[in-house]
Amino acid sequence: MPKALIIRKANDLIEARYKLTLIQQRLILYLNAQVKAWDKDFTEYSISVTDFCEFLDIDPSNMYSQFTQISKELISKTLTISKDNQTIITAWLSAAIYDADKGLIRLEFSPKLRDFLLDLNEKYTKYSFDDVKRLKSTYSYRIYELLKQYYNRKIKERTLSVDELKEMFQIKDIYANYADFKRKVILVAQNELFEKADICFDFEEIKKSRKVIQIRFVIKRNDKNIAPFTGEISPNILEDITSEDVSQSLQGAIVQDNELFQSEGAAPLLSFISEPLTPQQQTAIYSAAGGDMEKIKRRYEIVKTKPNIRDLVGYMISILPLPDSEFESPVASSADSPAYVTPKKNRFVNFEQREIDFKKIEQMELELLKERLKEIDSTEDSSVDVSRESVSPSS
User: Fold this and answer.
1) Containing structural domain, residue 178
2) Are residues 260 and 339 both part of a single domain?
3) Neighbouring C-beta atoms of residue 264, cutoff 10 Å
4) CATH code of the domain covering residue 51
């Protein structure tokens, strides 16, 4: 199973002023996904033209000749980043080497981008490239990132001025008329995100006199494009998890404190878990965490980013007893080696190699239920009803 491509970038970079073509935007994101959360410096990243085209479902026959030109343009193309009281103007790439014999291109980010792609402890946005790779408009990518930045912080709306958006996208001269800007940028992005991304939006135009000066985006989870917990677990699906990622996923979260059921000794109501769970399953998860509700929340925030988990309950039960240190960034293999690698032996990473014994899990759940829920009748085995927010684009 292919490895998940995770994008991490500082929010200042998301709000930078630049303009890229669709293929340039995709190449930069693909390159961004090669950067690991624990990297301390840029390296020379090798990209297979074949893999790149396969990931994006592009015909590779025409891409080999284009890659050299694309890289050359990215070296000369600049972006403007505002950080604190500084304005940083830099190119995207510092070097590009195309190996025609191997079908590889070796790229390196400009050193000026270190603060915006490396060692990101706060004020950054993370998402999976799989969630946006089908987008066909470079403006859809930009609007997605601007909204994802807020959605990850559990903020469901964002207001941006029309002039601010045009400046970020460098299209003031292209779409000077708002009607054209709305039709070619906003409506295209709205439709694409609804059809192809994990979040979507409605929007409201804010006017001064009769002129639209701001757009209020209402951000929504797009359930129809979020894969359910089915299929096999990728052998390296957890490779990119770090303690910082867990912290960010929890930052700003608005979650209801979970109280015990009214019956004494009953399992806690895990209302923050969106998948339907029986009382036995909730009890099994609660017991595996040793009654630590905060630990369950932390682990579930990780599970929500993994679309290919076949058995949610069995997976949660397996990872909850593990110490938090299992989820920290890997460390260098030796003091003399600058390379940061994922440890080869890790109970958490190796979980997917073990077949889940569903009967054993069921038996364990029943035993836990007998110990903790002796007073509860068998009629209380109904699933917890979980409602989902429905989404649709603006008419």
Assistant:
1) 134-226
2) yes
3) 7
4) 1.10.10.10
Percent helix / strand / coil, the chain, rounded to 5: 40, 20, 40
Last residue of a domain, one of 181, 200, 226: 226
Cα-based distances in Å from 197 to 133, 186, 395:
8, 15, 18
Task: Provide the pLDDT confidence category of residue 363 given band limits of 50, 70 and 90.
Answer: low
Whether residue 213 sits in one domain with residue 174: yes
Same domain, 375 and 247: yes
199 & 280 share domain: no
Taking alpha carbons only, the member of 152, 137, 182 closest to residue 7 is 152
Task: Locate 12 and state its tokens.
Answer: 């200042």
d(CA 71, CA 225) in angstroms, rounded, equals 32
Q: Are residues 304 and 211 in the same domain?
A: no
The pLDDT assigned to 282 comes to 80
pLDDT in tens, 180-220: 999 999 999 999 999 999 999 999 999 999 999 999 999 99
Query: Quick check: 254 pLDDT over 50?
Result: no
The two tokens of residue 84 are 């604190």
Q: Do 214 and 254 reside in the same domain of the chain?
A: no
CA 129 to chain centre: 8
The pTM assigned to this predicted structure is 0.61
Cα separation, 200 vs 151, whole angstroms: 10
Q: Give yes or no: residues 215 and 319 share one domain.
A: no
What's the rounded Cα separation, in Å, for the pair 206 and 183? 16
Does pLDDT of 22 surpass 60? yes
User: Could you give the angle at which helices 22-32 and 63-76 cross, rounded to 10 degrees?
Assistant: 80
